[in-house]
Amino acid sequence: MAAPSTCTLHNLTGKFRTNKQLSDSSDPLLAIQGINWAIRKAMGAVPIVINIKACPPENGVDVIEAENVIGGGIHKAKERRLLNWDVVERTDANFGRLRVQNGWSALSDIKDKFLTAGLQKEHSQDSVIMIKVENLDHAWTQEQTWGFEEIDGIRRYVRKIVVTKEGKRETARLVFDYELA
Fold first, then answer.
1. For residue range 69-104, what is the model confidence (pLDDT) as tens digits?
2. How many Cβ atoms sit within 10 Å of the Cβ of residue 36?
């Protein structure tokens, strides 16, 4: 289902399910990040549903909360992102120690064209949500943009991801269908 026009990055609230037919495989990304083959195959076989909620700003900083549900509830992970570019270190059960930054970025300021290709400008703004991750245990980096694209005439929520490690680079575009809650 198309994302409604009322759902924007500045009011990103809804239930989104991966569209496996339109999305790239995330297997190459997970492989470079050190996730073992069995887990990668299991993750590739089941849908991912993301329940996203834009929260009221805190001290002028936009806040997004998300719950990622894999395989109908086999695995759930909650995230709380402050879009202020502060560096936050945390430990993830699958990826290890991470240094994460979340914020708004103008499309024109993002050098990697894969991360911006096809993303729609919202109203008069050309900013997207950007996430930067540095893995402190396995020395990979990830850049990710969140936005909307028109795909086959339908407005869809997308995440574009680039992972690099030791000169190797993998990319994926994840496309999501909007679902009524």
1. 876 666 678 899 999 999 999 998 889 999 999 999
2. 10
Residue entry with tokens 């020395």: 139
pTM of the shown model: 0.92
Q: Which two tokens stand for residue 146?
A: 């969140």
| Domain boundary assignment for the chain | 9-179
Q: Identify which of 50, 1, 41, 43 has the alpha carbon closest to the alpha carbon of residue 22.
A: 1
CA angle 125, 130, 133 (to 5 degrees): 170
CB 66 within 8 A of CB 79: yes
Token readout for 127 is 């900013």
9-179 has CATH 2.40.128.20 classification? yes
Four-point Cα dihedral 164, 102, 66, 147, nearest 10: -80
Distance separating alpha carbons of residues 3 and 58, to the nearest angstrom: 26
